[in-house]
Design brief:
Helix content is 29%, strand content 37%. It is an alpha+beta fold and 109 residues long.
């Protein structure tokens, strides 16, 4: 599923207060990096944020699902990235809090 260019532009605007970010194509989607570490990606019209063992339960409490894709052998879940809860897209302040947590999780690489 490719990233919607309109949605990528929208996410860039929301993330602007984080400072200088880099982004680009990523396996049919779009990656977003902070200081070289990928902390987010867009697939279609869905924003996924990097999680770790500390932040993952918060996503799960919000009903967020991990990124997944389908292969000939079945479904593969990528539990390092979870969909950002929809409400965050309407609340830039809270989205930035979650994005900073994702940046921290990405820095643990």
């Amino acid at each position: 599923m490719s990233a919607s260019s309109e949605f990528v532009s929208f996410v860039r605007e929301l993330f602007a207060p984080l400072g200088q970010l880099s982004d680009g194509k990523f396996f049919g989607g779009h990656s977003i990096k902070y200081r070289g570490s990928q902390f987010a990606m867009v697939m279609g019209n869905t924003l996924y944020l990097r999680v770790n063992d500390v932040t993952r339960p918060e996503y799960e409490r919000e009903g967020a699902k991990p990124f997944f894709y389908t292969t000939k052998k079945g479904v593969v879940q990528v539990r390092k990235y979870y969909a950002a809860p929809e409400a965050l897209l309407d609340d830039q302040e809270q989205l930035l809090v979650w994005a900073r947590r994702a940046i921290n999780a990405a820095g643990e690489l």
